[in-house]
Design brief:
By secondary structure, the protein is mainly α. It is built from 18 helices and no strands. Helix 12 runs antiparallel to helix 15 and helix 16 packs antiparallel against helix 17. It starts with a helix and ends with a helix.
């Protein structure tokens, strides 16, 4: 067990830490990016969401690569692409160059979660996957924590360009650790390099066609995509424009939310593992968590007198319930399908996150700017639209079936 933690769990956890740091750092440096490039809300949303579209589009081939070549080789190679993207982003002088860098970052870290979940299927018992996956995702949440107040502190020593240069160096180092430390473990029945691409693609199509996938994927996609859109960008402007917080307070509130997210990944994983031993299916825990997340969004939209730190913290914590669905679906298929099952969910999550993050910016841009920020009513209308999509997905999941 200790050896598995050191040689499998921790190396992949470092990669996921970086992935979430890249994903959420723009929420803290949004003001600097806007000032440097003169971006509108729509432009800022489109630039930041380039990460999501590259990440999402690569999920289908990624699942095949993971099942064919194994998570160690695939993630190590892709992290070098992320490092190149970070270097380009740091040197960019125009929105086009920064978008290229952000796109390469999204492509490069696209395997960080999926490679780990695929490795977990090979290295851990199936009934412990909700717990192991939850603890692993908590490490990604720590990346989101680092993207808040610590990054804000770094900005007093350097600018956002220096931050991204440092990230590029760290990413190369993590790629080396994964390649050199993580062992290969052949999985019984895994397709291997000799498997035909046609057979692998047919397996991917079977995932999307399965009743379990069609039932449970929509809600986790809607909840995750909405939360990603906010924690990686729009939560910061919301706290500034709707709650009237200054830059330091915004960073602090984002840190609270990121810490709650990390705690939620670990805590809900432990809850699901404990209740499963008492006969409560993990999907019940997942759906309950996502319902609480929707309730917190309703609180934010309606303007109820709940302190923003409380609302955003509960929202971040309960959203972690959506991640249990990965383990639920992985257990519905053979182990050799793990990479394709997980990436099928992620494909939809990141395509939706790209659409929502850019769409939120477009909705906000309908309203005239207020001072140095955006109109509060634009923020509320955008979040109301996200919440409506989630409620529709919840109705689809719980509707009676034969």
């Amino acid at each position: 067990m200790p050896q598995r933690i050191l040689t499998v769990f921790l190396p992949f956890a470092l990669g996921y830490f970086l992935s979430y740091l890249y994903r959420t750092v723009n929420a803290v440096i949004a003001d600097e990016l806007t000032a440097t490039l003169g971006l509108t809300a729509a432009g800022l949303g489109l630039l930041t969401s380039a990460y999501f579209i590259a990440f999402g589009l690569f999920q289908a081939p990624l699942g095949i690569l993971l099942d064919r070549y194994g998570p160690r080789r695939v993630e190590a190679a892709l992290l070098l692409v992320a490092a190149a993207g970070a270097a380009i982003f740091a040197a960019g002088e125009s929105i086009a160059v920064l978008a290229v860098g952000r796109t390469l970052i999204g492509l490069g870290v696209s395997a960080c979660l999926m490679a780990a979940l695929t490795a977990n299927v090979a290295w851990w018992p199936a009934d412990r996957l909700p717990l192991v996956n939850g603890l692993f995702m908590a490490c990604g949440g720590l990346g989101a924590v680092f993207a808040t107040t610590p990054v804000q502190a770094l900005l007093t020593l350097t600018d956002w360009r220096g931050v991204f240069l440092g990230l590029a160096v760290a990413t190369v180092a993590v790629a080396a650790v994964i390649l050199l430390v993580v062992p290969d473990r052949p999985r019984p029945g895994a397709p291997g390099p000799a498997a035909s691409w046609g057979a692998l693609l047919r397996g991917t199509a079977a995932v999307f066609a399965s009743p379990a996938f069609r039932r449970y994927a929509p809600l986790t996609v809607a909840v995750q995509a909405g939360f990603m859109s906010y924690i990686s960008l729009w939560a910061g402007p919301w706290l500034r424009d709707v709650e009237g917080l200054d830059r330091a307070a915004v960073a602090t509130h984002l840190q609270y939310a990121a810490m709650a997210m990390a705690a939620g990944f670990a805590g809900i994983g432990v809850i699901a593992d404990t209740l499963a031993r008492r006969g409560v299916p993990p999907i019940v825990v997942a759906t309950t968590g996502m319902t609480v997340a929707m309730a917190m969004q309703a609180v934010l939209v309606s303007g109820l007198p709940v302190p923003p730190a409380v609302a955003w913290t509960l929202y971040a914590f309960s959203t972690a319930g959506s991640m249990i669905v990965y383990a639920v679906l992985a257990r519905s298929f053979a182990p050799d399908m793990a990479g394709r099952v997980n990436t099928a969910v992620n494909l939809l999550v990141f395509a939706a996150a790209f659409t929502l993050q850019a769409g939120i910016g477009a909705v906000i841009a309908w309203f005239p700017p207020v001072g140095d920020g955006f109109a509060p009513q634009g923020h509320r209308m955008a979040l109301a639209g996200v919440l409506a999509l989630q409620l529709a997905a919840l109705a689809w999941q719980v509707r009676p079936r034969r």
